[in-house]
Structures are given as C-alpha cells and as structure tokens.
Amino acid sequence: MGERLALVAFALRRTWGGLRGPRARRLALAVGGVAVAVALVTTVTGVAVGLAAGSTVQADGVDYWVVPAGGDLTTVAVATEGPRLGDTHGLTARLRTDPRVDYATPVLLQVAPVETGTPDERTYVLFVGAVVPEDATPRVAGLPTAPLAPGDPHYADGGYDGPWTGGLVASPAAADLLGVEPGDRVRPAGASPDRSFRVTAVAGEAPATAVGSTPVALVHLSELQSATGAADGDTADQLLVATNDPSVRADLTGLYPRTEVVTRQGLSGAEASTTSLPVAMGLAAFVVAVVVGALFTATTMGLEVTRERRALATLSALGFRERSLVVVVATETLALCLLGGVAGVAAGLVGVAATNAVATSLGLPAVAAVRPALVPLGVGTAALIGLVAVPYPVWLSRRPSTSGVLGG
Question: Which stretches within 87-145 are classed as H helix?
Fold first, then answer.
C-alpha cells in the first residue's frame, strides 16, 4: 500500500510539473475536453431540474412562494391532499401591512369534477383560488385576476357569510373542455346550486404539459374553500408574495414550520418531479458527456503517452515495474479528468446563470435551477470519464520495450 501511495504521489507531482512545463499545452487540452463535457452536463441538468421543479403557481411580479416542505404542489398534477398552510387570510392581511410587500395572496389548488350536462357527465378542472389584491391585478397560474372582484368578499373576516361573487376566469382550455363562454354557469359536482360560478372571462394561458394545456379556472379563495370543504382552518397550498426587498425572505422563512421559501429566480428548494422530459434531458446530457469526454480523453492521453514513450522507458530502466508504470499513467489520466471536472462545474454554473439571464431578458421566467448536487454530479462525471478512458493510454504505455525505445 505504501508503494502504491508513493507511486500516486509521484504521478501527481509529474502531472503538476507537466502542467507548468513543455507538456502544458497538451495536458491543458485534455483538461479542457473534460471541462467542456462536464459543463454540458451541469448546464443541461440545471435546466432539467428547473423544468422539473414546477411546484409553484406562476404569478406576475411574485418574488417569493411559501410552500410546505416536501409537498407536491404542481399545477399540472392531481393535487392538494398533501401539506397545507393554515390561517392564510389573516396572515395575508398582516403581510399587506408591511411596507416592503407590494402584495401577497394565498393560493389553493383543487382538482374538482364539473357537471357538464347530466349528473353522470363530469369533467375535471383544476380550480385555483386566490385573494385578489385591491391595489394590483397580477396574473395567477397564467390567468388574469382583473375580471374578479377585489379582495375576497365571501370570507367576511372569517365568517364565510359574505356575498358570493361567483366570479370565474377560465383558461381557453377549460372553456373548450366545458363548452362555456362568458356569462355561462359552472358548478362543481356536489356543490349546492347557490355555490355555482359564473364565467366572467376566458383569458390567459394555462400551464402546458406533455399532453397539452391544463384546464384551469381561477376563482376567489374563500369561495373555493367553501365549495370544496377547505374553509376549516382557512387552508391554502402556497403563499405568493411580491416584493423588491430581499430582507422579506427572512421573515417569510419563519411564518410556518416545515415550509420552504422558493425564489422567483429559480433557486428552488422544491422537490423535483419525475416528469419524463427533464429526466430524459439530464440522462441524455450525462450519456453524451461521458461518451464524448471519454473518447476525447482517451485519444488525447493516448497521444501524450506516445510522445512520452522515452520518458516512460527511462522510468522502466530506473527500476519501475510495468505495474508501477500503469499506476503512474492511470493516476495522471484521472488527475487531469478531475481537474477538468472542477473547471467544468464552474463553467456549468456560469452556463446556468447565463441561461437564466437570457430567459429573463426575453421576458420569460428563469428556466434553470442551481442545486448543490450539481457539484458532485459534475466531479463524478469527470471521474467516470477518466475510468472509461484510462484503459487505452495504459495499454499504449505497455507496448514499447525499454531497449527498443532507448535504443531508438
């Protein structure tokens, strides 16, 4: 073991010296090849994670979302029997008194059947309940809040006995699915006739999935709570907060136990879903990076071993056994790959930031996410590239004989 450690230390010193000597350009080429491959997998994986972490309802101007930790709150899946937030109207009222907060609104997601004809004919729609800010008209889940009455009249300070506005904004997909237009009535199955909704507008865009646009209907929070039995405890799935002051985040973190504060910029702590597209993107990037990186590294290090035949033969003449030379060549290859991995991770994180910057400049939300796991992923990819590539330069190092090389 001591002999092998000495050989590894010798190989590392030889690599370091090569990076500062005549071999620097050739070795830097090997490092750069791995760095490009790792940067690719880091950037693409960051985008894939950003696409998969779709656990917040998009709203114009919202800088923070407060969501239950570990809850699956995706707007395109059957939702909401997971963790929820309580006393959301009271908390929202307190947040609105904070001069740093532009507006805040809780959001409840509920997939509910809607009667479309006879009682046996039902169509499922994703209802989104929100409190409409009185001094702002943001879009929630892609739908405008302007057609709804300001505030949440039916809540009536917790009595749920205020006027029933019945306003509903339908996405085009929901309107087509239900066959309704402005002025038509929509009633969730099982709700009493006086708890129906009237379509006030068909506008906006619903979240898109692999099977098309999700049918979404936006209504007042208290009315959705009353219609779906969520009024007890005044519960909602998440809280949207618009602010230009980053100090607000610290206050939001302590609002509820076991919650996460998700930022608009995509540095999301929400649990990533296993949607097929993001997983396929990440897997494809990983396979391409390993294959291309291994081929490039094997070729580059093979050429380097060929150029260094005389030096390797000299080591053999000095007493290095064939197995010792294998350790030297393998260590040098793996060391260069790990250096490339570190450089590639740094370049990949820059690529993630650049991707988000480009998306933001085009008026789109951030599409890539930064996760701590990207660092070990990149370094691990580099190590795998080295392991796949190392047999070829090792094989080349064993070909020439000492007398043949030195005699030439």
Answer: 88-96
Last residue of a domain, one of 210, 236, 263: 263
Q: Which amino acid is at 400?
A: P
Q: Is 220 exposed, middle or buried (0-12, 13-18, 19+ CB in 10 A)?
A: buried
Q: Does 217 fall in a domain?
A: yes
Q: Can you give the pLDDT at residue 364?
A: 58
- Cα-trace Rg, the chain: 30
Residues 113 and 163 in one domain: yes
Please indicate, yes or no, if residue 240 is contained in any of the structural domains: yes
Residues 71 and 209 in one domain: yes
Q: What is the pLDDT of residues 148-205, one digit of tens each?
A: 999 999 998 888 999 999 999 999 989 988 889 999 988 887 777 788 899 999 986 5
The candidate with the shortest Cα–Cα distance to 205, out of 368, 47, 365, is 365
- What is the Cα–Cα distance from 145 to 200, expressed in whole angstroms? 11
Single residue among 263, 286, 315 that ends a domain in this structure: 263
- Amino acid at residue number 177: L
Q: How far apart are CA 169 and CA 144, in angstroms?
A: 8
pLDDT reported for residue 202: 92
Residue-number span of the structural domain to which 171 is assigned:
64-263
Residue 181 — φ and ψ, nearest 5°? Answer: -145, 170
Give the model confidence (pLDDT) of 120-162 as tens digits.
667 889 899 999 988 877 888 888 899 999 999 999 888 899 9
Q: Rounded CA gap, 23 and 34, in Å? A: 17
Phi then psi dihedrals of residue 275, to 5 deg: -60, 140
pLDDT band for 223, please (50, 70, 90 cuts).
Answer: very high
**The pLDDT of residue 294 is above 50:** yes
268, part of any domain:
no
Q: Are residues 152 and 7 in the same domain?
A: no
Query: Do residues 171 and 113 share a domain?
Result: yes
Residue 395 lies inside a defined structural domain of this protein:
yes
Among 169, 172, 76, CA closest to 130:
169
